[in-house]
Design brief:
Shape: globular
CATH class: Mainly Alpha
Order of helices and strands: HEEHHEEEEH
Enzyme class: transferase
Strand content: 15-25%
Distance between the termini: 32 Å
Structural class: alpha+beta
CATH architecture: Orthogonal Bundle
CATH superfamily: Transferase(Phosphotransferase) domain 1
Number of strands: 6
Number of helices: 4
Keywords: ATP-binding, Kinase, Nucleotide-binding, Serine/threonine-protein kinase, Transferase
EC number: 2.7.11.1
Catalytic activity: L-seryl-[protein] + ATP = O-phospho-L-seryl-[protein] + ADP + H(+); L-threonyl-[protein] + ATP = O-phospho-L-threonyl-[protein] + ADP + H(+)
Strand order of the largest sheet: 1-2
CATH topology: Transferase(Phosphotransferase), domain 1
Pfam family, one: PK_Tyr_Ser-Thr
Largest sheet: 2 strands, antiparallel
């Protein structure tokens, strides 16, 4: 929550607010993000979609997502590794600008003097679909 509250970039979904409640099921959280009326990139790539993205729009989406990643990885005072890049986590605002969402798997980058973050190896067919369908 602390990171999401201070991160601000045109290609990252804004966190509007949240609440947390500890009950018999454990800590329950509700996150409220800015409204993204055009849904996710995934919504516009599926064969069931009535409004698929044109090739110029797909390139714009890829560039917007890259700008968001660059900000997280290189331009903040501390590094955030976005580990869940997939078409359903790239949302589209009213002007069709792409914004990264779902920071559930995000991690702080390497500490000063270290060159990497130790994480489990993951494969993702969603990432492959992103590169296949968007680029």
């Amino acid at each position: 929550m602390n990171v999401l509250g201070i991160v601000e970039h045109p290609n990252l979904v804004k966190l509007i607010g949240y609440c947390a409640d500890d009950d018999e099921r454990g800590m329950q959280r509700l996150l409220v993000y800015e409204y993204m009326p055009n849904g996710s990139v995934d919504d516009h790539l599926a064969s069931r979609s009535t409004s698929t993205l044109s090739w110029p729009m797909r390139l714009k989406v890829a560039l917007d997502a890259a700008r968001g990643l660059k900000y997280l990885h290189e331009e903040m005072d501390f590094q955030v590794i976005f580990r869940d890049l997939k078409t359903s986590n790239i949302l589209l605002d009213e002007n069709w600008n792409a914004k990264l969402s779902d920071f559930g798997l995000a991690r702080h980058g390497p500490q000063e003097g270290l060159s990497h973050v130790s994480t489990a190896v993951r494969t993702s067919t969603d990432l492959e679909l992103f590169y296949t369908n968007v680029l």
